[in-house]
Amino acid sequence: MAAKATYPPPPPYYKLYKDYESNTSAPKPPPPIHGTYVCFGANYTTDDVLPSLEDQGVRQLYPKGSNVDFKKELRSLNRELQLHILELADVLVDRPSQYARRVEDISLIFKNIHHLLNSLRPHQARATLIHILELQIQRRKQAVEDIKRRREEAQKLLKEALGTLEGS
C-alpha cells in the first residue's frame, strides 16, 4: 500500500514565487474579479445587493421604499408574530386540521423580519467599523501618553544621575 499525501501538491507555478524578495520576474497576481464569476459550477456575483422580497417570491408586509422606519416596522411585525403564534395555539387546540395556513402566515412574518434585519447589516457593519477604529485611536493615544510619561521619567532619572555625577 503506497503512502498518499493528505493534500495535493502545489501547482507548478509556485516555484516562480519561492524567492519573492530577489525574483522580480514573478508575475503579478491577477486583478480582482468584478461582476459575475463561476466557482464550482455555480454563478456568483461580487455585487452585494440584498434581493427584494418580491424577487424571492415573498409578499412584503411593511411599506416599500427607502425611508422605512425599521424600529416601528420591526415592532409591528413582532406584535403580529405574537398574535399569530397565539392564534396557532388556539387552532391547534380547536381545529388541528387548519394549522397549515397559520404556519404559513408565521413563516411569512419571519421572512419579513429577517429581510428587515438583513437590510440593516450594512449600517451595523459601518457602526462596528467606526467603533473598532475609535478603540484603536484611543489605544494609540494611550500608548503615546505612556511613552511620553516614560520619556519624562527617564529624562528626570538622567538629570538626577548627571547631578550626582557632577556632585562627586
Automatic annotation (TrEMBL):
Record GO biological process: regulation of transcription by RNA polymerase II
GO MF terms held by the record: transcription coregulator activity
Domain of life: Eukaryota
Coiled coil start-end: 130-164
Subunit annotation: Component of the Mediator complex.
Record-stated family: Belongs to the Mediator complex subunit 7 family.
Name recorded for this polypeptide: Mediator of RNA polymerase II transcription subunit 7
Organism field: Kalanchoe fedtschenkoi
Lineage: Eukaryota, Viridiplantae, Streptophyta, Embryophyta, Tracheophyta
